[in-house]
Amino acid sequence: MRRILLISFTGQVGAELWRTLQPLGQVIPVDRHPDEQYAIDLTQPDSIKKIIAQVKPDLIVNAAAYTAVDKAEQEPDIAERVNAEAVAILAAEAKARNILLVHYSTDYVYKGDADTPYLEDQQPNPQSVYGQTKLAGDQAIIDSGCQHLIFRTSWVYGSRGQNFLLTMQRLAKERDTLQVVADQYGAPTWSRLIAETTAQVLAQVYNPKLGLDLNEVSGVYHLTNAGETNWCDFAKAIVKHEPNPPKVLPIKTEEYAAPAQRPAYSVLSNDKLADVFGLRLPDWEHSLALCLAAQQNR
Ligand SMILES: NC(=O)c1ccc[n+]([C@@H]2O[C@H](COP(=O)([O-])OP(=O)(O)OC[C@H]3O[C@@H](n4cnc5c(N)ncnc54)[C@H](OP(=O)(O)O)[C@@H]3O)[C@@H](O)[C@H]2O)c1
């Protein structure tokens, strides 16, 4: 049975992957909590190598990352260790063992001055420490020559962890008015969609009848919900379902004054994912409705 090392099963995407990867093999979930059977700390190279030697995976799925975009400006060294150096080690291990590495990246690798959806072969130009360290991780994987699938996603939300959906739902209960940035455009993406799409891609990769050549399909893929919006309209779409919806007022990026610079436009084209794997991702409104329904049913 295929042994799948899942790094982070408690983050937004990792928790969903723990469920969606089950049909593909034996999932061995690891995180950095020392009470688990296998604990991994991505800031410690030895801990990464030790886990891989113990687990002997046939596939590594890395859903862990340093994702605190603003805090990364103050902690560039830790962000670099987790998002770039640890990823380089995973890639070297994958190459040495001739196994596939699945990894996640971000729309924040792009500058954000485009006005049509970014394609995978467009030049990245990250404007934040987070974006720079994530891009360094992507580049380390590509340079290692290992078989890889790097899924670049955006504006991830879901019913767990720290994300915009849960923050807006909390603030809606506390305030009458919310001021939300209205001049950054992107695609909110449900963590569950990312995990389900990953599993669908892997099911194709491992189906011998399809004859996909991993060396050929290796690469970077954009994987986001379809459509686009801005944070203010996303907030309105969330809070309208609250019992006493607050007013949501648009503000400009400079009025919010976050430490890290974010792209003004980071919509990603999913055409490559559709061309190679035949997967068309739903509009962000559709996934938001499903996520809200899933929250109700908990
Ligand atoms: N969140 C977004 O809006 C967004 C947007 C675009 C792309 N992405 C990418 O999508 C992927 C998944 O993101 P996510 O939203 O699921 O992230 P998340 O919810 O923040 O989860 C990140 C996970 O990484 C773990 N982690 C952090 N530092 C670690 C370390 N030193 N050693 C071991 N584990 C460590 C965290 O563990 P702890 O719980 O112990 O901290 C957590 O389980 C990441 O590659 C991210 O860059 C995210």
What fraction, in percent, of the residue positions are helical? 40-55%
- The name of the CATH topology is Rossmann fold
Q: Which CATH architecture is right?
A: 3-Layer(aba) Sandwich
Order of helices and strands: EHEHEHEHEEHEEEHHEEHEHHH
Q: Going by CATH, what is the homologous superfamily?
A: NAD(P)-binding Rossmann-like Domain
Strand residues, percent: 15-25%
Structural Rg = 19 Å
Tell me the overall shape: globular
What is the CA-CA span between the terminal residues? 32 Å
Strand order across the largest sheet: 2-1-3-4-5-10
**Which regions have little confidence, pLDDT < 50, spanning 5+ residues?**
none
Helix/sheet category = alpha/beta
Number of helices: 11
Largest β sheet strand count, sense and barrel closure: 6 strands, parallel
Which class in CATH terms? Alpha Beta
| Overall pLDDT | 96
